[in-house]
Structure to design on (667 residues):
């Protein structure tokens, strides 16, 4: 899988990326138009619906947090040349571990939050580590190992919600009983925005940036991702690096799960992962595996996710339209960028001959 | 086992058989179409919608095959012409296909539409035991059984099949011998995609009637896993489908007695498949495989050497 980094050619300029994004945005708008969404109205509703007032801005931020953390998780494993599709499952297991602490332990709030974050991170790390073991020791491709473990995690969360952790008297898939308010991450006033969660997301993105750009570990990890055989001949312990990437990615995903239960739902629900693990794949592909860009794109995608609720309410458009828009943006951008670099390559070949 | 149970398993597994055979063809020629979970949903929706509007099940299957083939062509086109990564594009198309199916299919949710009619084969159906198992189904199920044989014979016993395999195993060598590697990759990826689409429509028009959002979510991933489980061999892959189908039927039958089990069983096949992959790749099993050619043939599961590796004539 060492061709991951070749999706974009290394000399791709910011200009051509922006150009590609512009073209794909235009196409998305045209497509929205075709499906019955007047472009200006749609755009206005998207902005208003996601940033229009303090409530909406805080909602968007709280979609951004888990998405940014899941993206950070994917950037680490992508750097090692891995397709860590199991992030979704790692989010779920992180949420389960954090819920366990929230339900079973009693401590002063800051301590409890800390314990939840650590437990969530550990849960994600455990699940990521299992995928890593399957890949490294069992030779099972991480796409299938990760997906399989995601299915298991989904089964586990449903089992817990309707089984041992069911609400007193009723077993319903709507979730466990809410946690004690001590386990709720603090928010600004009555809004849903939680500074602690925002801090965790920023810290996660920064950590990934720092590790990949500034540390020896990052250099070795990227060397492993580009050419594992060569890296290993040069003395890089590739298996250890791959495993560390899985564990680190798992921690970040697990913390995303912690935020989902601690700051957003305040209980464990079957759909706790919110599909952020899968959406993050789109984010990171569009963000060219870079932390800062992926952080920004996560926010844009969060805007689409929250803002498109207004399309549903005001324009009577289907709820899946936000997801369609996100998918088309990424697909078209990648294709346009590839066309640009193909043109450049042809020119180079011509010049050379 | 009761013949009726076996017949049920064969019928219930038929959509997966199409999808798995299609993906096996695609991967044998060296292309990974990872979009199955999205393209099958899109095909299931398209197949049902077209059949619903036109009243013709045949047109439904045709439309499903076309749309899924189109998705597959996006992957092979962007890989060969634009040098984009097949896995990346496949994943994007998975997510996009899922959302697109939900969006485009919104008017057809929970509608009652046409379905494939049962068609027992006269005389053959009266053969004791076997008649009940194989000849008391509908055309879709017969076609799924026939496809296994056809794909097997085509892959291993025709010149075209050997050319297909060499394009997936050693594209450079195949090209040097005059085989148009990339053209074959286009053709068989499109053909494989069409089979995947037929699998999708076989769900919405036969096995799991109708359409709703996420109608057959996760079946695409299961199909992809069965391709690996099947060691890129059509017969073994089909067997994988039937094992999976049997597990599902068992889960359904046990549900009244063990209600807790019903929550766990639907996800069980996937972990089982992964454990099988671990076992098959285990050095111990490999060693046995090397010693005995029969066991070796059964457990061997190496992917085509050129799988996912694009080939460009520089």
């Amino acid at each position: 899988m060492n061709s991951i980094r070749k999706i974009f050619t290394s000399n791709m300029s910011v200009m051509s990326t922006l150009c590609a994004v512009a073209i794909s945005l235009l196409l998305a708008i045209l497509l929205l138009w075709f499906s019955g969404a007047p472009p200006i109205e749609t755009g206005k509703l998207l902005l208003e619906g996601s940033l229009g007032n303090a409530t909406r801005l805080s909602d968007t931020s709280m979609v951004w947090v888990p998405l940014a953390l899941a993206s950070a998780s994917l950037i680490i494993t992508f750097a090692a040349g891995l397709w860590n599709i199991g992030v979704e499952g790692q989010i779920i297991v992180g949420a389960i571990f954090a819920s366990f602490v929230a339900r079973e332990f009693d401590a002063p709030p800051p301590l409890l939050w800390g314990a939840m974050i650590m437990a969530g991170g550990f849960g994600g790390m455990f699940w990521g580590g299992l995928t890593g073991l399957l890949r490294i020791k069992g030779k099972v491709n991480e796409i299938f190992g990760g997906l399989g473990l995601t299915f298991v995690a989904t089964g586990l969360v449903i089992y817990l919600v309707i089984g041992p952790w069911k609400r007193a008297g009723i077993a319903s898939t709507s979730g466990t009983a809410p946690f004690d308010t001590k386990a709720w991450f603090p928010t600004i006033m009555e809004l849903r925005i939680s500074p602690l969660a925002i801090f965790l997301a920023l810290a996660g993105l920064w950590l990934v940036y720092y590790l990949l750009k500034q540390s020896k570990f990052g250099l070795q990890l990227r060397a492993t991702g580009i050419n594992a055989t060569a890296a290993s001949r040069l003395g890089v312990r590739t298996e250890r690096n791959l495993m560390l990437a899985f564990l680190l990615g798992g921690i970040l995903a697990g913390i995303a799960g912690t935020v989902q239960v601690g700051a957003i739902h305040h209980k464990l629900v079957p759909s706790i992962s919110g599909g952020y693990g899968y959406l993050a794949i789109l984010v990171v592909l569009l963000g060219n595996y870079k932390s800062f860009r992926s952080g920004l794109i996560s926010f844009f995608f969060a805007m689409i996710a929250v803002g498109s609720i207004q399309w549903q309410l005001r324009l009577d458009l289907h709820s899946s339209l936000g997801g369609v828009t996100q998918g088309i943006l990424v697909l078209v951008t990648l294709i346009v960028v590839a066309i640009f670099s193909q043109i450049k390559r042809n020119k180079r070949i011509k010049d050379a001959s | 086992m009761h013949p009726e149970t076996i017949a049920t398993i064969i019928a219930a597994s038929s959509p997966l058989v199409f999808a798995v055979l299609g993906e096996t063809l695609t991967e044998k020629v060296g292309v990974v179409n990872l979009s199955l979970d999205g393209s099958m949903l899109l095909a299931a929706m398209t197949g049902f919608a077209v059949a619903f509007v036109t009243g013709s099940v045949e047109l439904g299957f045709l439309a499903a095959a076309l749309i899924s083939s189109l998705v597959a062509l996006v992957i092979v086109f962007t890989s060969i012409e634009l040098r984009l990564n097949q896995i990346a594009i496949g994943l994007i198309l998975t997510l996009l296909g899922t959302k697109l199916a939900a969006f485009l299919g919104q008017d057809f949710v929970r509608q009652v539409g046409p379905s494939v009619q049962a068609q027992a084969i006269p005389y053959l159906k009266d053969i004791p035991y076997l008649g009940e198992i194989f000849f008391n189904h509908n055309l879709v199920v017969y076609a799924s059984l026939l496809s296994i044989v056809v794909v097997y014979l085509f892959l291993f016993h025709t010149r075209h099949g050997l050319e297909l395999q060499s394009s997936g195993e050693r594209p450079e060598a195949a090209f040097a011998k005059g085989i148009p590697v990339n053209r074959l990759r286009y053709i068989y990826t499109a053909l494989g995609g069409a089979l995947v689409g037929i699998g999708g429509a076989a769900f919405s028009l036969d096995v799991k009637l109708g359409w709703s959002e996420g109608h057959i979510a996760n079946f695409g991933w299961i199909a992809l896993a069965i391709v690996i489980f099947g060691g890129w061999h059509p017969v073994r892959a089909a067997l994988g489908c039937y094992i999976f189908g049997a597990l599902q039927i068992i889960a359904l039958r046990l549900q009244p007695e063990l209600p807790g089990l019903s929550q766990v069983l639907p996800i069980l096949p996937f972990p089982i498949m992964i454990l099988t992959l671990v076992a098959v790749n285990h050095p111990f099993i490999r060693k046995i495989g090397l010693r005995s050619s029969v066991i070796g043939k059964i457990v061997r599961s190496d992917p085509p050497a050129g799988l996912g590796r694009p080939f460009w004539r520089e």
